[in-house]
Predict the structure.
Amino acid sequence: MVSRLLQQCVGARPGEIFEDFFPDGIAAIAMTWEAGRIVVATGNGRLCLMDSRGQRLREAFEVRDVHQLALAHTAAIGLAVCGDRGLHCFDHDLQKLWDGRVTGKITAVAAAPHGSHFAFATDSSKIHIITSERREVSVIETRRPVTQLHFLAETTELIAAAEFGEFSRYDLQGKTVWAEPQVSNIGSMAVAESARRVLLAAFNHGVQVFDLQARHLGSFSVDGIPSKVACTATRHRLAVVTEEHRIFWLSFEGNVLWAADLSHDPLQQVAVSALGDQMLLASASGCLLNCGWF
């Protein structure tokens, strides 16, 4: 039986790898690019570790009010944002490593690919870079509160974007590599590092494309207002979610390969595997669907 999320679609329909349901809702998801692991945070304070086939491997309880997750590509370590100010660090088995609270509301979080560092931004226009053992490495002051963070793998540097503010790159010591003005409202950011591309879902401005030196390379346009974007590690595929509750699966040449209307169960989260063979969808009803093209 075809998942409800795939019933109203056009193009090359993906195959269903697994479908699962979380009746209390899905607050956040994270998919690793190396270890084939998925972490789901639910609305009732549960973390669930799954493999890419949908088998539930571990569960952790009493991790309340999670609304953001950052996971190392190796799945060795992760960080959850709990409420406005809380941080909960966990290992590959979801066992707690440490908890902490910060000053200010957390607006973005990221994990280094191999788990050596985390970064989090606050509404006081600061980015904090810490080690996985919670030692603070640097504090970066920004012009506006940062809403998007992403660690690069090759250089362990950090790319940050703020709404109507800076689009910047920093090293671990907090030194600015480059900083460019950003006049768009940003819904989400994705980085195809092997392709040296940064994608910004910029609502009425489409999906804006930059290289790793902040040079503008063009944009992707879809039927609607892009609010979320996810992409592969290489210059292969990207997924775009719009404010009209549609999702588009595109090639990096801009061709729409598949699209679906999800207005009956709007998407809350989307993630894409490194090679583009899997796309993970989390809907408002608590449906988690991993689908793929083979």
Observations:
- The radius of gyration is 18 Å.
